[in-house]
Amino acid sequence: MKIDVNSDMGEGFGPYRIGDDEALMNIVSSANIACGFHAGDPLIMDRTVRMAKAKGVGIGAHPGLPDLLGFGRRVIQMDATEIEKHMVYQIGALQAIALNAGHRVTHVSFHAAMGNMVNADPDMADLVARAIAAVDRDLIVFSMPDMEIVRAAQAAGLRVLTMFLADRAYDADANLVSRKLRNSVITSPDAVAKRVQRFLDSGTIETIEGQSIKIEARSILVHSDTPGAVDLAATVRRVIEQGGGTITPATALLA
């Protein structure tokens, strides 16, 4: 089995850092890089891109809402033009920095509230998918399966790579459990190992209610800001490789 492992990176600002990007770059095959709105700045973006290039890690834009204070996790009401231009701006910023560093942006993975919006709102999903396609039709959209953005991206002629979030709890409808709820974030390497092994063996996971649900995915995400993220990502990689799998960037999976 070939599978991508990805993580959100570059999510600091100025002297502040969130996550151990240097360590994660040795583990993942794809990095979703914050583009300056929920986190990140030009220097952090450049440094993260150059680290990824040195490690042979694919890079993608990780656009979020303009909410540094709330880390992009709060809903901000924006009209269609604002959403479109904010999406284009963030992708374009990372593309320019990548070009300057000799690397290439290959995918888009949405952050927090922005992701929730494009997952659930068909009009928002269509708008964002068209904006991405207008910038670069070769960009791959990363998403949880069966979301509005999956449908919209495919309708816009974009490729989609669906993800399983190893460090987040799911409910019976295959949606993420709110971070406000207990046990919504999974920080135990043993628990993550069992989840990933089950997913690889059967394509299923156990929900927070104890039910079994099917997940169609070819990429596994570990958030860099989850406590113990490096150990969790290393656990994901170990389980995949011990089962005979190969960690493969998104572009190679969808070539």
Automatic annotation (TrEMBL):
<dbReference type="GO" id="GO:0005524">
    <property type="term" value="F:ATP binding"/>
</dbReference>
<keyword id="KW-0067">ATP-binding</keyword>
<dbReference type="Pfam" id="PF03746">
    <property type="entry name" value="LamB_YcsF"/>
</dbReference>
<keyword id="KW-0378">Hydrolase</keyword>
<dbReference type="GO" id="GO:0005975">
    <property type="term" value="P:carbohydrate metabolic process"/>
</dbReference>
<dbReference type="InterPro" id="IPR005501">
    <property type="entry name" value="LamB/YcsF/PxpA-like"/>
</dbReference>
<dbReference type="InterPro" id="IPR011330">
    <property type="entry name" value="Glyco_hydro/deAcase_b/a-brl"/>
</dbReference>
<protein>
    <recommendedName>
        <fullName>5-oxoprolinase subunit A</fullName>
        <ecNumber>3.5.2.9</ecNumber>
    </recommendedName>
</protein>
<comment type="similarity">
    <text>Belongs to the LamB/PxpA family.</text>
</comment>
<comment type="function">
    <text>Catalyzes the cleavage of 5-oxoproline to form L-glutamate coupled to the hydrolysis of ATP to ADP and inorganic phosphate.</text>
</comment>
<comment type="subunit">
    <text>Forms a complex composed of PxpA, PxpB and PxpC.</text>
</comment>
<keyword id="KW-0547">Nucleotide-binding</keyword>
<dbReference type="GO" id="GO:0017168">
    <property type="term" value="F:5-oxoprolinase (ATP-hydrolyzing) activity"/>
</dbReference>
